[in-house]
Amino acid sequence: MLASLPLPYSFDSRAGSVLLRRATAADGDALIALMSDDPISASRGDVASIDDRPAYLEALDAVLAEPSNDLLVTELDGAVVGTLQLTSIPGMARRGARRLLVEAVRVRSDLRSAGIGSAVMRWVTDAAAPALDAQMVQLTSDAARTDAHRFYERLGFTASHVGFKYHLPR
């Protein structure tokens, strides 16, 4: 858990008042639903199968126990409607710059374009990164997520690198 994050954080969206807070074990089922509420994630196997629930809950516990990581959720009217994972990475490059990595950004499909994602990402750049002494916020996005790419570019992110992945068998 990234203890220095300024949480909880409340903000207004077009859907109403939203609370950004640290995820807990009790959020497991809502997080699983968010992963499957995305066609690209679903195509990779995130289909909210009951058989996969133990793996997701184990992963949630691992993220929350890791000091350099945090998993956050957004709540609207008491329901979890969004999530993102943050990882603070110390580095040697760029004169020892610390990076804040943003992963697995999700907003429930019926609430996309309600301003929730924009507000959360502004909080990441304006509050979380400075609180963690990060000099850069970085993220990766699947090449097929063209809407997400436009979203991040509108927020001032630049598509500056090409990413590579190597998948290992489970």
User: Helix and strand succession?
Assistant: EEHHHEEHEHEH
Structural class call reads alpha+beta
Count of DSSP strands: 6
Q: List the total number of helices.
A: 6
Q: Please, what is the average pLDDT?
A: 93
Approximate strand percentage: 25-35%
Shape: globular
Could you give a short account of the major beta sheet? 6 strands, mixed
Biggest sheet: strands side by side, in what order?
Answer: 1-2-3-4-5-6
Q: Percent helix among the residues?
A: 25-40%
Radius of gyration: 16 Å
Which spans have pLDDT < 50 for at least 5 consecutive residues?
none
Cα end-to-end separation: 26 Å
Structure description:
With 170 residues, the protein is an alpha+beta fold. It is built from six helices and six strands; from the N terminus they run E-E-H-H-H-E-E-H-E-H-E-H. It has a six-stranded mixed beta sheet, with helices on both faces. It is globular.
Helices and strands, with pairings:
Elements: E1 9-13, E2 16-22, H1 28-36, H2 39-43, H3 53-65, E3 69-76, E4 79-89, H4 93-96, E5 99-107, H5 116-131, E6 136-139, H6 146-154
Parallel strand pairs: 5-6
Antiparallel strand pairs: 1-2, 2-3, 3-4, 4-5
